[in-house]
Structures are given as structure tokens and as C-alpha cells.
Amino acid sequence: MTDKKNQESEGFEVSNTLTEGGSKGRAGDKVFSGLALFAGCLILFVLFCVAVFLIWQALPTFAADPAEITGGEGFWSYIWPIVIGTLIAAAIALLIATPIGIGVALFISHYAPRRLAQSLGYVIDLLAAIPSVVYGAWGMTVLAPALVPAYVWLAENAGWIPIFEGPASQTGKTMLTAGIVLSVMILPIITSLSREIFLQTPKLHEEAALAMGATRWEMIRMAVFPFARPGIISAVMLGLGRALGETMAVAMVLSGGALMASLIKSGNQTIAAEIALNFPEAFGLRLAELIAAGLVLFVITLAVNMVARWIVSRHKEFSGAN
């Protein structure tokens, strides 16, 4: 009887302990859930405040006489060339950085020996820590002059293609140079995120593909890429966001001017660089113009992120993770 009573008392104590632990756990979950909800709402509130500020400060530009806007033909005639310049520079950066970044990430995650993979990973992460001013200085003093002979050759031998039409810039400060610098800047973002996604591929999927007789590349194509597709898209979109909003590097590499169809002529500008170069001395209507340009960049970036989320949500259920 005594043993039975002792067992019942011990069971009661264990039950009380579990109940107390469960209630504490539930309280912790509620606190964490509340903090997460607050953080999400705070981000939305800050984003809303930024949008309201930009719209309020840009209103004088939209209400002004077109003759008073820079260029004398209205705001949209002023902003359109630099919007195109922004998109061209970002597109060049993505075209260069995306295949290289995915290839490097794939090499680190599935081909390189462990020590080499760790070293390459450190180097890639280090590239992401370099300030944009350093990239701009490198592009302006080293890369741009080095590309001048290539631009001259392109103008002489491929000038019949509109994007390589001459005369080639003698300083190398062109949209193509800016795009190359931007590609180096966004390469660590795409590579690091893609590498982490590749490493998260379920090992059972990889081993099953290899067990069926697939080569390593066939295994990557059938198991790794389907699983990593949403992550790759997210990485590319993050890189695109960095390329669209980059300021100092582009401002240092590009020489401002009218919109050029050719990528090897001097000229062109991006929205971020236009704002950075002119904001310190701007006042009155000119200041409102630059804030309106920032509003346009804000809308472009928001649209890009919304499209990226839509693409990721479309492919999420077919990613191979389910």
C-alpha cells in the first residue's frame, strides 16, 4: 500500500510539473507571437510612412508647369530616360551575375573539396562586406580605362548593332561598365543565398537519384534545381533590388548625360545616382523633382518584389520540398 501511495504521489508531482511547464511554454509562445506580429505591423507602418512622405513631397512636381521641370518638357520626359538607364544597368548586372553566382554556389555545395569550399565561401562573404564606394573607385580607376580598347573594338567591328554603336567612350564610363560593376556587387548575394538553398536539398532525394544511375549533373538537374527554384528566384530578386538601388558605385562610374541606345557611349544615368549627385544642392522645385524620382524608384522596387513573391508562390508547391 505504501509503495502504491508513493507511486501515485510521484505521478501527481510529474503531472503538475508538466502542466506548469506547458503553461509556461504556452505563455512564451504567446509573447513570441505577439512580438512577431508587432514587428510585422511595424514594418508595414514604416513602409506606409515612407510612401506617404514621398508622395507628399513629390506633389509640387506633378502640379508644376512642365516648362519649370528640368528639361522643360515635364516630369515624365525628365524621369523616363533615367528609369530606362536604371533598368538597363540592373539587367546587365543580372545577366552577368546570375549564371556565375549559381555556378559558383553549385561548385561550392556539390563539387569542391571541403577545404576549398570553405575558403571560397569566406571569400564570397567577404565580397559582400566591401563598401560600395570601394567598388565605385575600382570601376572608375581600374575597370573603366581597361575596357576602353574593348569598346573601341566593339564600335569598329559590331557597330551595326545598336547597343554597340560608336563612337566608343574614351573614358570607359559607360552603362556597360556600370552594369559590370553592379554584377560584381550583387554576385555575393546571389551566390551565398543559392549556396545555402543547395545545401538544404534533402539528401534522400539526391541519394535516390544517384541510386537510380543518374550522374552527378543529372542528380543536380532532377533533385537540386527543382527544390532550389524558389530560393534561386528570391536570391536573384534580392540582387536585382540591390542593383536598382545602388547609388555611389554607379554615380562614380557613369558620366551623366542624355539617354543613349549604345552601351559603350558616354552618357546615361540611373535614378539613384541622379538623386545622389544632385540632392545636396537641390532646393524648391528641384528638390521635389528628386523626391518624385525617388518615389518612382520606390514603386519600381515594390513592383519587382511583388512579382518575385508571385513567382515564388507559383512554384513553391512544385519545389520538391513537399
UniProtKB/TrEMBL annotation:
This is Phosphate transport system permease protein. PROSITE patterns: ABC_TM1 (PS50928). The chain crosses the membrane at residues 34-58, 78-108, 120-138, 176-199, 219-240, 284-308. Its main location: membrane. It is a multi-pass membrane protein. PANTHER family: PHOSPHATE TRANSPORT SYSTEM PERMEASE PROTEIN PST, PHOSPHATE TRANSPORT SYSTEM PERMEASE PROTEIN PSTC. Residues 83-308 form the ABC transmembrane type-1 domain. GO terms for molecular function: phosphate transmembrane transporter activity. It comes from Arthrobacter crystallopoietes BAB-32.
